[in-house]
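Researcher: Next sequence.
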Amino acid sequence: SIEVDMDSFVKAYQRYAGEPWEVLTTDRLLVRETTLDDVDEFYKLYKDQEMTRYMEGLFENPEDEKRYQKDYIDKVYGLMGFGVWTLVRRDDNRVIGRVGYSVRNGFDDIELGFLVGKEFQRQGYAYEACRAVLDYGRDILMFDKVQTLVTAENEISINLCKKLGFKVCDT
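Model: Next structure:
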């Protein structure tokens, strides 16, 4: 159909022009590819120590992070067609987190990852984003199995994963 062709054309143009793809929208959120401008917003999200208690932080130097992100945008989005994306609140266009898929060394399954900034937590954004991204993974990317790795102490994420339908396989 023409619609699919038009979408493919738009996506090809966006890739060529270095513009981010809009992956999906929910009632309150936009999930889109990360841009270099997002990096400054990520530093605001990650500055709360809570954010890196259970996960890796950013490079100390924002220029290093931007170089890393540029490489990621070119290689991962272009090659894989998926990756970790930026989470934007639609009503005010604020970057509130990150969500998406990655391939982790030593594991066979695709991994779902998510992060919502401290001030945006406890409002259902993580569930809303992850639910939509899991549906997208199943329906569009054709993933039949997805894993998520969560530290045992991170009870909030564990509860979210259970609510999303994940089963504990290993500790």
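Model: The beta strands are 22-25, 29-32, 84-89, 94-103, 110-116, 146-147. The chain is about 40% helix and 20% strand.
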